[in-house]
Amino acid sequence: MNASEARYGGGVTLLLFLFIFLPLLAVLLNVVLPGLFFGQVQATSIGLLGEIFHRPLWRQSLFNSVMLALGTATLGTIIGGLLATIRARWDFAAARLLDLGAWVLLIAPSFMIAQGWVLFASADGLVNQWLGWSWVTSFIFQPMGLVFVMALSKFPLAYLAILAASEWSMKQFGYAARLNGATPFTVWRTVELPLALPAYAAGWTLVFMDTVGDFGLPAALATVYKFPTLTYSIYSAIYQSPVRFDMAGVLAFYLVLILALAMALLMAVQRRARYDFLNARAVKLQKEKPRYAWACNLSIIAFLLVSLGIPVGTSAAVSVLKQTGGGFVAENFTLDHYRELFAGQTGDHRYLHYLEGMSHSLAIASATAVFSMLIGFVVAYVLTFTESRLKPMLQLFSIISLAVPGVVLGIGYIFIWNQKWLEPLGLHLYGQPSLLVLAGIAGAIPYAVRVQLGAFGNLSGTMLKAAAIQGASVFARMRDIVMPLVRQSLLIATLASFGTSVFDLALASMLRPANYSLLPLVIDKAFEFSRYGYATAATVVSCVSVVVIITAVHGLGRLAWKWLDRNQAGRGWRDR
After folding, report:
1. Could you write out the three-class secondary structure of 452-479?
2. pLDDT of residue 344
3. 92 neighbors 293 (Cβ within 8 angstroms)
4. Looking at residue 359, what is its pLDDT?
């Protein structure tokens, strides 16, 4: 490894340390040394960690988060595993619809899905007003009902993990077991289940981690149902008077501890996984036509109508109704909520300034997407084509952000970037939109790195070595060789980062500048103040706008690549 490669490796490692690991370290240090980041270091407070078992709110928040995560992970994995098995083994018309629905749920912001369920199932919601089914309200707004709702929105994580493992045929092992007298159940218990167990464990862990760190559901429930969780209690501790950094630090410590234990469990299962069945004779499972294809299609469509149709359809319906209890009749339809979005600020409520919030969020998401793509590109290059000794650290930092919830990352950013000694240096970023960009980059880097690592894995390092022998610098190799070959993945990484950053409610709530409107807060605050028509209209317009932007940019990018390729081909022909 030459000095230039070492500089690039050291530079991106330092960036990831500042963006991701340092904020997390600050949260953990504040538990041990409270007041460290505010110039008033107090005595070591390890004993404060034990207070979570004596303070009712702290204890209940911990219990609710663990219970919700365990239940959701278990039910979500059962649902995802069943759907993945059906999808891998059978060929039916609704299969692609199932894939599309899973990806929509995976990408959709959790607080928007949760708001749709609240509008559907609350006491004055659609199901109660229109059908009089009060039992739905009683079922949803209790712990097991919340597990049900969360499982319906989080199951795609388990579905995709298990589907990837279920597409390989293991029939030869089953045949061998049957020849030795094994029953079908014994074959499943001793052959198929052990081989699939790592995939189920990965799916369970992913659902568990995503649920325990979720901020959207508690934020949506706060208006109708008291269900404190670690994430929402951390947020409340920061934005109450007086500010309770001790409470936020302790709850964040336990949240990180739970996530660390979940990751340790996943790594332990993966170490015991068997991959030797994927040898040269391994073949993909041949999908068969189910005997009752119509029943399979009908079941999948019904499931998607419940898991995706209820929250999305409810939000769309409420956005065009004058009164939710007025029914779908002509005189109850209105477009006033949509007109109000574009009318500017409404009364004295700054949180309703939709256009301002939309422009701010799009600008922040755009900056986040570009910078995360560039940093992810360099990280992927260092991990793939160099022998940097910092590669293990880079891998660690790029994965940590996947497990650290936005509220924990937000607290760390407050601790780090709210220091008075940073003011003379012009780096006192707390209360500035630039801090939202930095935090957004931290959250988007893991996705940008993973997308680009997949493309880099298909490239040969031979041409890079040849270019290096000819004197090309590392920057020239990245710009002139690697970037043109992986340009499609760069565009996808940029758009993925953009889409996830626009609706990041956790970071927007934790790091919002004073009197600065942001799209997720516009929707969340309107919902909190029972402006349901306004909130749902904003949700519909925002989601459609983001999809249109992503689709348009992706299409323009493909046209630009074709134009460049034609021009290069034309120049090459003329040079002959």
Report:
1. HHHHHCCCCCHHHHHHHHCCCCHHHHHH
2. 64
3. yes
4. 92
Give pLDDT, residue 558: 82
1-41+341-571 and 69-334, same CATH topology? yes
Pairwise CA distance, residues 53 & 60, whole Å? 9
pTM score above 0.70: yes
The CA-based angle 335-341-343, given to 5 degrees, is 100
170 phi and psi angles, rounded to 5 deg: -120, 25
The pLDDT score that the predictor gives to residue 268 is 75
List, in order, residues 6 or more apart from 276 with CB less than 8 Å away. none
Distance of alpha carbon 288 from alpha carbon 544, whole angstroms: 37
Residue 351, pLDDT score: 54
CA neighbor of 341 nearest in space, from 317, 310, 325, 320: 320
Backbone angles phi and psi of 321, in degrees to 5: -110, 140
Domain 1-41+341-571 fold? MetI-like fold (1.10.3720)
Cβ atoms of residues 490 and 377 within 8 Å:
yes
C-alpha 379/C-alpha 9 separation (Å) is: 8
Q: Write the burial class of residue 27 (CB in 10 Å: 0-12 exposed, 13-18 middle, 19+ buried).
A: buried
- DSSP-assigned beta bridge partners for residue 333: 321
Q: Does the domain formed by 69-334 have CATH 2.40.440.10?
A: no
**Cis peptide bond prior to 242, omega within 30° of 0:** yes
**Distance, CA of 287 to CA of 275 (rounded, Å):** 22
Q: Tell me if 120 sits within 8 A of 324, measured CB to CB.
A: no
- At residue 125, the pLDDT reads 81
What is the mean pLDDT for each group of 10 consecutive residues in the chain (576 residues)?
Answer: 74 86 83 67 62 83 92 93 84 86 85 89 82 85 91 89 69 63 68 73 87 86 83 82 74 86 77 52 63 85 92 90 76 85 62 82 93 89 82 78 80 85 82 90 84 74 79 81 82 86 87 87 87 89 90 87 71 52
Domain ranges of the chain: 1-41+341-571, 69-334
Taking each helix axis from N to C end, the angle separating 433-456 and 406-417, rounded to the nearest 10 degrees, works out to 130
In sequence order, the 6+-apart residues with CB closer than 8 A to the CB of 166 are: 84, 85, 87, 88, 89, 196, 199, 285
Q: How many residues does the chain have?
A: 576
**Contact present, 319 and 337 (Cβ < 8 Å):** yes
**Which residues fall within 8 angstroms of residue 497, CB to CB, at 6 or more apart?**
365, 368, 369, 372, 373, 440, 444, 447, 448
